[in-house]
Amino acid sequence: MPYRRVIEVTFEAAGAGSFPAVSICGKVGEIMADSRILLECREIYKSFDKNKVLQDINLKIKRGEVHALLGQNGAGKSTLVKIITGVYSMDSGQILVDGQPVKMNSPKDSERAGISIIHQDQQLVPFFDVTRNAFLGSEMTGKCGKLDFKKMRSLVQEKLKLIDSDFTADRQISTLSVGQREQAAIVTALLQNPKLLILDEPTASLSNREIEKLFEVIGKLKEEGVTIIYISHHLDEIFRITDSITVLRDSRVQGTFPTGQTDHKEVVSLMIGKELKEFYPKEEAVKGDVVLEVDDLYSGELVRGVSFRLHSGEILGLAGLVGAGRTETMLAMYGVEKVKSGSMKIEGQPFAANSPLQACKEGIAFIPEDRRNEGIVAQMDIGENLSLSSTRLWAKRGLIDRRRESTFFEDIRKTLNIVCTGKKQLVGELSGGNQQKVVIGRWMVGDFKIFVFDQPTTGVDIGAKTEIYKQMVSLAKQGCGIIFISSENEELMGICDRIAVMAKGRIVKEFDAAQVKEQDILYWAAGGDEDNGGKEAKCVG
Amino acid sequence: MLDKKRLRPAKVGTLLLGKGTGVGMVIILCLLGLRAPLFFDITNIMTILKQGSVLTMIALGLTAVLIGGGFDMGAGALVQLTCNLTAGLLIAGAGTAAALTSGITVGIGVGAVNAFLVIVMKIPTFVATLGTMFIMQGITSWYNGGKALTINSIPGFAVLGQGRIAIIPVIFLIVIVVCILMNYFFKHTKTGLRMYASGENPAAARLRGLNTRRYLLLSYVISGLILGFTGVLQCSYNYGASAITSGMDFLIQALSAAYLGSTFSKTGELSVIGTVISGMFIAALSNGLIINGISNQQISGVLGIILILSILLTVIKKREIGQVTIF
Question: What CATH code would you report for A36-114+194-269?
Answer without folding.
Answer: 3.40.50.300
